[in-house]
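Field reference: sequence -> structure
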Amino acid sequence: MACNTCNCNCNSCNNCNNCNCNCNSTAPSVAVGNTITGAPGTRALVTNSGTSCRAVLNFTIPAGMPGPMGPQGPTGATGATGATGAVGPQGPAGPVGATGATGSVGPQGPKGDTGETGPQGPAGPAGATGATGAIGPQGPKGDTGETGPQGPVGPAGATGAIGSQGPAGPAGAAATVTVGTTTTGAPGTEAIVTN
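Structure field:
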């Protein structure tokens, strides 16, 4: 290549042998600039921040994709107990837990004071009639009841024939009264005396 004019820019290629530019070298040079780690999965990139004859190459190398998680390492030794921290605020109440088993019966406590008598409750329904009990002993003789009303007069009977007078009989014994059987009647019925 012919040179019409000498260009003494030492950062550009100087192929003119008849120029005295006092540069250290007229041959092209390559220098490494910055090496930058790119995002995983991006393409590698090389840029020149110098000139075509004094190149400064900057490399962008993408980071590798994360590898699979390794196995869990062994548990390390327990460290020393740290100082007790300040008490934090009380948290909200948790849900009510399940009812536990019934504990054993404790000793009987002292007798308390007698409480006031409560109001009488309503009468309960009448129970079924129980079986008839055994007959109790005979009670004392009751008072004579009032004389009942006289019944109506019956029709007159036919007059009989007059018989002959018999002999006088012996004197009769005094009348006696004996208590027979006493029976318990149904509730609410009247007392009856029979001979």
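Note: Residues 86 and 92 are 18 Å apart (CA to CA).
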